[in-house]
Amino acid sequence: MNVSLSVWLLTVAALCVLVAADFFIGRRPHDVSLREAGIWTAVWVVLACLFGAGLLVFRGGGPGGEFFAGYITEKSLSVDNLFVFVLIMAKFAVPSQYQQRVLMVGVLVALVLRAAFIAAGAAMISAFSWVFYLFGAFLIWTAWKLIQDARKGGLEQEEYEENKLLKSIERRFGVADRYHGTRLWVEENGRRVMTPMLVVMLAIGFTDVLFALDSIPAIYGLTQDPYIVFTANAFALMGLRQLYFLIGGLLKKLVHLTYGLSVILGFIGVKLVLHALHESGVHVPEIGIPFSLGFIVLVLAVTTATSLWVTRRRGRA
C-alpha cells in the first residue's frame, strides 16, 4: 500500500492529538474506577475499529484485513504484557493514584521505541529477504519458550527483577527513599536524586524493549506495510493504560492466555517461513490474511473460554 508523506504526517499528528487528549484527561493523579477504565477502553477500541473500517473502504479488503489481524495480535500480546506491569507495580509499591501516570509515560516511551523498531524492521526486510527466516525462527522459538514458562507456572509465580542497566542507573544517580507525588527528581541531603516514580517508569520502558522483540516480528508476519504495522501498534498500545485498570483483577483468571499466545506466535512464525520459502522460489502454500485473522480470533476465543472455565472450577473446588 503506497502511503504519501502527507498521509503519514496527518496520521502521526492525529495520534499525537489523541495522546495529548489522553494525557490531559488523566493528568490529575487519582484512583481509576472500573467505569472510567471501561469507557476509555471502549473509546480506544472504537477508534481502532473506525480506522480499520476506513482502510477497508478506501484501501480495500487486503490492507483492512491486515490492520485488524495486526491490531488483534498486538492487543493480545499487550494483555500478556500487563502481567509484567502488575509485577513491576508490586515490586516498587506504586501508590494506586500514581499508577496511571506511570503507565501513561510508559506507553509514550513504548510508542517511540516501537516506531524505531518498525523502521529498523522495514529497512531490514527491504534490504535482506532472508530476514523472514530469522523472524520466523525467532517467533517459533519464542512460542516454545512461552509454553515452557507456562508449564512452570507462568508469571504469576515470579517476581520482577531489575536488569543490570536499571541497577547501574540507580547506583549512578541515587534513589529517594519514598515517593514525592509525581515528581521525578528531588533534592536529598544536598544531592539531586531520582524518585521511585522515575525508576518504575524506566523499568516499564526497558521492559517494553523486550516486548517489541516478539511483537514487531509477529506483526511483520501478517503485513509488510510499515504504515499498517505502525498504526496497529499505536492503537494497541494507546488503550493499554485503561485496559490495565479494567482487567487487572481478571489477569489471574486468564490461565491459558500464554498457551494461546504461543500458538499464535508459532503460527505466525510458520507463516513467515512459508513466505520466505515462496520468495526464494520454492513452491509452497502461503497463508492468507482472512485465514490468519480467523485463526487468531478463534485461538483467543477458545483460550479465554477455557481459562474462565478452569478458573470457575477451581473456585468451586
Summarize this structure briefly.
The chain has 317 residues and is mostly helical. 74% of the residues lie in helices and 3% in strands. The protein is globular.
Overview of this structure, please?
The chain is mainly α and 317 residues long. It has eleven helices and two strands. Strands 1-2 form a two-stranded antiparallel sheet. The radius of gyration is 20 Å and the shape is globular.
Topology:
Layout: H1 5-25, H2 34-59, H3 61-91, H4 99-127, H5 131-151, H6 164-173, E1 185-188, E2 191-194, H7 196-220, H8 226-238, H9 240-247, H10 257-279, H11 289-316
Antiparallel strand pairs: 1-2
Keywords, separated by commas or semicolons:
317 residues; 3% strand; mainly alpha; globular; 74% helix; two-stranded antiparallel ribbon
The counted number of beta strands is: 2
First-to-last CA distance = 54 Å
Structural class: mainly alpha
Percentage of residues assigned to helices: over 70%
* Overall pLDDT metric: 84
The helix count comes to: 11
> Which value, in Å, is the CA radius of gyration?
20 Å
Q: Going across the biggest sheet, name each strand in turn.
A: 1-2
Oligomer: single chain
Question: Order of SSEs, N→C?
Answer: HHHHHHEEHHHHH
